[in-house]
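# nightly structure sweep
# worker-07 picked up a monomer target from the shared queue
# config: single-sequence mode, recycle default, output format = structure tokens
# input follows
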Amino acid sequence: MKVQLLQPTAALYPAALKHGNHAATELQTIGNQQLLTTTKTAVLCSRQCPGEVILRLYDLARRLRTSDLTFIGGFHTPAERDFLHHLLPGSCRLIICPARSPDGMRVPAVWQKAISAERMLLLSPFRLNRSAANRQGWLNAETNWWLRWPAKSCCCTPRPTVTRSSC
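# output follows
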């Protein structure tokens, strides 16, 4: 899948990402960039989430997967990945923010299907040629960099690392 660059001067470039210590100069994307204009629900889940909460999270995902919502997240923790797994068969929109460049990334077939249906966007501030040391420093400072967007709501489970009061 072809990576497209989104420059800070582009109309779709999120204003919230133009500022701060680690403002991205450009974003790498695969998929429907128009999803950036939708109202988003952030997905955050601790690695230490209790099993009973995870089961409720899966039930929630199954109920919301046919909604008109856009979910945004890194989908890095096991519970977040499972939440994504339950959302994928539906029709909701998804913005996935991997902690790496999408350039050269092996995009799973189920993601390719969602991208082809224009309901998924892979979004990353990382370039393929960025050194591991620079990437790690950036990640340490901005673990959930995508949280700088104003999300209408957050779907959080116990102990998420959230630094934004709007969630």
